[in-house]
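User: Can you predict the 3D structure for this chain?
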Amino acid sequence: MDSADRRTVLAADRTVLAAERTYAAWVRTGLTSLASGVGAKKVLGGVLPDWAVVLTASVLVLFSAACFAAAVWRELWPDINAPKPEVRRLPRALLLGLNGFLMLVALAALMGVWFGETGG
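Assistant: Here is the predicted structure, written as structure tokens:
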């Protein structure tokens, strides 16, 4: 393999690793939004009207579900056609299973926001 081919493979490896960092950032943002939505339900109760608390918490929890979906979408269907990297990609089953579970958690949190008690 000549020098240019090796640099191309290394560039493909860096692209895969950058995509994994992006995936982790989407999941981190989703988890933060999920925790903020659940926390807003308790913290803002008694400070804002109930409808505003439920709306704020719902938007945050729904945003978390969107982040989990975007994480999988961006990781499994990237916009690039890079050469075959040497680095192994994350397994599809792991990505779909983990993010599917996180979306179920977000759905459960949304039910808690809608039907749980407001306030602390």
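The radius of gyration is 19 Å. The first helix runs from residue 3 to 43.
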